[in-house]
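If your schedule permits, I should be very grateful for your opinion on a structural question. What I wish to show you is a protein chain and, alongside it, a tokenised description of its three-dimensional fold. Would you kindly read the sequence against the tokens and tell me how you understand this chain to fold? Here, with my thanks, is the record as I have it:

===
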Amino acid sequence: MKVKTLVSSLMLLTASSVMAQSYQYEVGANITHYDPDHAGSDSSLGVYGIYHFAPVSTTNLPMAEAAFLRKSSNVYVSGHEDLDVIYAGAEFYIPNSMFYVAAELERIDVDGYRNNDWGVRFGLTPVNGLLVWTGYYDEPGYDPNIHVKYVMDLGYTNALNLEAGHTNGDHYDSTYIYGDFYFNHTFSVGAGYQDEFDNDIFTLRTRKFFNHQFSGELAFSKADDGKGFSVGASMRF
């Protein structure tokens, strides 16, 4: 009887450990502070929520990249600029194929300007850890654009995340490139550059998972016309 009890206890412990390394919901919030060179500073709130259709296992993966590497289909909603800008959408990785599709709704209500828009994305996942896609928003004409995200396993719990994209717009071009180095599955430090509306933006960022549920992140950006930083936290369950 004692042996059976011990075996049962070990099985429950193992099952609990596995469950603790999986999640299906993620919610988060952040505060962003802006300090323009020729205007007064300002702060704003951002929030987001994600629901994955199936539990996402983080075992032996960078925790921040687990859903991406597992090709987890999901629905999400996010609010920015004190909820004056809201996005809601869904991402689908077509089972047993390399195809990826997504759809998004956007609502903007800022200082009297109101606009509702929608967009779609189409992509391919030709190899594990790589996604290449292009997007279209409900606007006259298609602005050629391409985006790439690649998470590379470096061994010894190290990994590298690379993100880049370019849009050839009618009135402006936009380019970005970011990279994050994972010192282990829970901690990353990254940097990036973005050229938006002829404004150069340089960013440093970091994220740390304190356990399988809670994480915190910091980011600092310096642009041609000012600087800013953000502090955020998220919870998974």
